[in-house]
Amino acid sequence: MKLQATSYKLQANSGFTLIEIMVSVSIFVVVAMITTGALITISDVNRKAQAIKIAMDNVSFAMDSMVTNLREGEVFGCGSSPGQSGTPCDDGIVFVSTRVESECGTDIKYIGYRLKNGHIQFGSLCNSNPGDDNYMDITSLEVNIAELRFYVPTPSQGLTRVTIVIKGQVLGKTPTNFYLQTTVKKI
After folding, report:
1. Dihedrals φ, ψ of 88, to 5°?
2. First vs last C-alpha separation in the chain
3. Closest CA to 168 of 49, 60, 88, 47
4. What digits encode the pLDDT tens for the residues 125-164?
5. How many of the other CB atoms lie within 10 Å of CB of 139?
6. The pTM is what?
7. Nearest residue to 128 (alpha-carbon basis) of 169, 162, 79
């Protein structure tokens, strides 16, 4: 009988108690929650980074469009007045295009860029004083442009360059401000 009592005692000590199981499950739950939280945070950061990249690619496209057309343009002016240069041009820029083939009744075709309702707009125009229908947005809804400024030297200074300044914000859960500037040298 003594032998049976010993074997019974060994069987009782070979398992886990309820408290040990509860502690191990609790530790597992805490580790799982921390890991899940980290994965959710990483996923959220990745989505934000992708949204910012897409928006900045859009602004970069707008800047490239302006640079290409300005580089090959002539008779630069502020607003809707080609040839009326001044520094800075806060209401946009209009110039004669040598790059785009004219669809107008004349050999002259104008290009215009302006800021309206938080978006950069492009206009391919037949005259230098167009209506709003001739412009289209070239920046997306995910971007709010606060400032678009062109620095155009007066003709007496010798027009060799135009500086473009863009200030804005990438919209979303965490708005991100940006500031871009480039100088275009006429070829």
Report:
1. -95, 165
2. 108
3. 60
4. 776 555 656 788 999 888 999 999 998 876 655 557 888 9
5. 23
6. 0.70
7. 79
Amino acid at 6: T
DSSP assignment, residue 146? E
Place of tokens 């500037």: 181
- The residue assigned the tokens 């678009």 is 148
By C-alpha distance, which of 58, 47, 59, 73 is closest to 173? 47
Q: Are 148 and 113 in contact (CB under 8 A)?
A: yes
- DSSP state string for 111-134: EEEEEETTEEEEEEESSSS--GGG
Give the domain ranges of the chain: 46-185
Which amino acid is present at 67? V
